[in-house]
Design a protein that fits this description.
The protein has 2 domains: about 1-75 and about 155-250, Rossmann fold; about 85-155, no CATH class. It contains 8 helices and 12 strands. The protein has helices at about 40-45, 70-75, 90-100, 110-125, 140-155, 170-185, 195-200, 225-230; strands spanning about 1-10, 15-25, 30-35, 55-60, 65, 75-80, 160, 190-195, 205-210, 215-220, 235-240, 245-250. A hairpin with a 2-residue loop joins strand 11 and strand 12. The radius of gyration is 18 Å and the shape is globular.
């Protein structure tokens, strides 16, 4: 589904990413981790087509990413940045319908398929009570639920998320993690940038560890605690809990 070869990017004269190679198949779940400033958010923006690489290639479904129009790309990829970008007051229902942008005519209202997709997303994410709310009045957790539902309604095979659990209370974080797990079980390919190793490690099928813009590791999920220790500079331990293998910082 997604092939990255020799991907590099610089901000001015400062290298941010160097020589990244990555391959994702359909229905993979990739966990991207590394210290602050390692290049994780930049990588997501490159994969989403928001930035242009200085060198290397990104191929989506066998086609160079730069050859997609914005509307075509929106039929394949949904990108949820770390901070939401709502600068205008909008109803939640309008935000959700915006997820159907790739399939809608500019001169027509929502189609039957658009409404069906909206209804399915509202039901799956439990947003019935929020539809007529101004999105700027929502809590951080509610906003992220709305954005995740919009990605579901957008009906794309690849979802990119940058620190989706930041600023969430434990209950909201657990709820969003379960929603992401449900999207993955439903066939979506998911890339998550996160420091929340203990939450996303059990879901991951593949991992990418970034260190100062280079890949320290890229491949299938590994439970080697040495890798996490090398990346973050602190000890980690592997434990079994509730029938799952977890990697946690050893305090």
């Amino acid at each position: 589904m997604l092939e990255v070869r020799g991907l590099s990017y610089s901000a001015g004269q400062r290298p941010v990413l160097q020589g990244i190679d990555l391959t994702l198949a359909a229905n993979d779940f990739l966990l991207v981790f590394g210290r602050n400033g390692a290049g994780k958010s930049t990588l997501l923006r490159l994969l989403a087509g928001r930035l242009r690489a200085g060198a290397g290639q990104v191929r989506l479904a066998g086609r160079d990413l730069g050859n997609y129009s914005r509307r075509e790309l929106a039929r394949h990829v949904s990108f949820l940045p770390q901070a939401d970008e709502f600068s205008l007051p909008m109803l939640v229902s309008d935000v959700l319908l915006a997820g159907r942008y790739p399939y809608r005519s500019l001169f027509r209202g929502p189609s039957r398929l658009d409404i069906e997709a909206l209804d399915a997303g509202v039901a799956q994410f439990g947003l019935e009570a929020l539809l007529l709310r101004n999105v700027q009045t929502l809590s951080g957790g509610e906003r992220k639920k709305v954005l995740l539902a919009a990605a579901f309604i957008q009906d794309v095979p690849l979802i990119l998320l940058d620190e989706p659990l930041s600023f969430l209370d434990p209950g909201s974080a657990q709820q969003l993690t379960r929603m992401l797990s449900g999207l993955h079980r439903g066939g979506r390919t998911i890339v998550v940038v996160s420091h929340e190793i203990e939450r996303f490690f059990p879901l991951a099928t593949r991992m990418l560890a970034l260190d100062a813009g280079r890949a320290r590791y890229s491949g299938p999920r590994t439970s080697s605690t040495d890798l996490f220790c090398d990346v973050y500079g602190i000890p980690f331990q592997r434990i079994a809990a509730a029938g799952r293998e977890l990697i946690i910082a050893d305090e």
